Amino acid sequence: MNGGLGWVLVGLGLTVLVVRRRTIAVGAVTGQALVLVGLAVRDAGNAGDRLAAVALAARTVGLAAFFLLLITRTREAGPIRAGVAPLRRGGLGMALALVLAWLVPTTGLTSRDAGRAVLALVAFGLVVAATRRATLFQILGVVLIENGLVLAALQLPQTSMLIEVGVAFDLTLIALVGGVFHHRIFAEFGAGDTDALRSLRD
Amino acid sequence: MTDREALACAAIARAVLMAGLLWCVPRRWAARTAIVGAVATSGLAVAVATGALVDARHPHAGNWIAIDAASGLLVGVIGVVGLISVLASPAYLQTVTTALVGERRRATTYFAVLYAFWAAMLAVPLAGNLGTAWLLIEATTATSALLVGFSGKAGALEAGWKYLILTSVGLGIALLGIALLAAGVPGHGLGALAWRSLGTYASGSSSALVVYLLLLAGLAAKIGWAPVHNWLPDAHSQAPAPVSAMLSAALLPAVLLVAWRCEQGMAPVVGTAAARGVLIAFGLASMAVAVPFLSRPLVWKRLLAYSSLEHMGVIALGIGFATPLAMAGVAVHIVAHAIAKTLGFAAVTPLLAHEPRAAGQPVTGIGRTRPLLGASLALSLGTLSGLPPSPLFASELLIIAGGFQAAHAGPAVAATVLLALAFLGLMRALLDLTVGEKPARDTARPTGLRGVVALAAVSGVLLLALTAAAVWLPTTDLVRALIKGVS
């Protein structure tokens, strides 16, 4: 993988971290996933790889449609403000990415750029899940981590097609269950806002 | 395929087929179909467990399926806990007034998802490689999150959401560890991630330590080890009681087995002391976090949840000590904890029918108003506290002795103090429960009490047998097989 593609993936990840609009964030993770589908198709060397690429493409299209459906069904009165400002979120994400890169100097992936992009996407996903209040953004944080791990799987010297397809299926299932919860939380509280989810304490 | 593998596949396939069948059956048949299916599924699981435990010296470790003493122990526990949860479910469903799905599909959806969860859970200990184990753990998250939020109430949605996001993020971190591990292991395909291949990681010991920490930190979020345990009390308290039993008694130790296999597999490259030290640290941290909560009056299900945190810590400690004494303690602890926790959660439905305020406040005086219900709850809590002759007293003693045997005197002493404090906290709860202040107003007749009393009687006998077994267990092949693992 060349460095330019890595930057595109990281840039789209950073977009999810800082934007306020849900549609833009869904577009960013979908764009990332489409880049990954392109990489998977280009590098497919056998039938197993092609099947994994098809599974990835199906997951990308399915999730994009599902998220857009969720957005239309759960119209928020206004964007839910995160507790942490966009610039600070971006800074936190980049700082965590640098810490991960320091902790894991060699990833063993075929491309050094890909290794760094994987760590950056995982870091951004973690910060999105930790700092965004909107439930849909928290699901997108998990999807962002998934996209990073899909990139890692694509850049491994050899992987099991079954594991790749299984991971795509499992993570799609998680996103779907997350969507169901988002929908119910919106119906119960009138907003997909995790600030409403603070009643259980000891 | 060997007979043992075929039996293991049959147990899992049976549960998967039942999930599909229950999705389709008319709702009036759902409970009866689920119960008949549960007896058969549980029977197959117990057969797998018996084969693995009787022939513990000859584990089977393929790329797809691993059947050894540890997986046998867990499959047996999951099979029995699953059966009891299915048996307890009709009584729970009778009390449900709201749910994620409409009334017409409520019972069939509940049982179908419960079986899907059970199937994934049965497969986790039998996974022959880390990749498949991860996939199965993630599948348990998707299915059990739906069950945690099943009532559709605000608290259940909150608990289900926290559970889904925290464990998914944790498992994402573990998957990063798996990807880095796969990049450093020679070979390719499933074999590269097989348990025995983890020790061939060739990217250096410092990288191996980072990979190992990512794996364990990720899995810790699912096991409920402190400090990434935040979802655990909420999910256990808001889930339907039969599901809470499966989460606490079966799922947590099943995922813990995966962490244990990672430790056994990666110890040659990480270093035995470092690999075990991480487990000991998680164990002590979990116990230390649980103790203050166990010492204050809590709602019954939350009390059981914090007890899970404590006991997962104790098991981690035992695995970290890894001596024959400690391993015998771990084996007894897993089984005894499962029995006591299943009984505790099974008693929730009659408890709430008898005293609805128990859903939101600590229970007191149940032994005075309903002696049989009080006795069942007391048996569960007394066992979990480690009150002699509880097998958990014996197992904790074995684990601490194992710590001294392994020259880990500091952690062993710290664990002794924490266990004593937890015991005192739970004893206070036990006294409140049995002879505490009676409820202020008349309470209703508990429903489903007969089944819980029968379960308590069987549990009492099994627990005493386990205490006796703990005496001779350290010198058996079973313990040697647990130490050896499948790596």
Features:
heterodimer, A: 202 residues, mainly alpha, 7 helices, globular, B: 487 residues, two-stranded antiparallel ribbon, 19 helices, 2 strands, 1% strand
Whole-angstrom Rg of chain A? 17 Å
Task: Extract low-pLDDT stretches of chain A.
Answer: none
Largest interface: A-B, 51 and 51 residues
Q: Please tally the β strands of chain A and state the result.
A: 0
Radius of gyration of chain B: 21 Å
Spatial shape of chain A: globular
What class do helices, strands and sheet pairing of chain B give? Answer: mainly alpha
H and E string of chain B: HHEEHHHHHHHHHHHHHHHHH
Outline type of chain B: globular
| Individual helix count of chain B | 19
User: Helical residue percent of chain A?
Assistant: over 70%
Query: What share of residues are in beta strands of chain B?
Result: under 5%
Spatial gap, N to C terminus of chain B: 20 Å
Strand order within the widest sheet of chain B?
A: 1-2
Distance between the termini of chain A: 49 Å
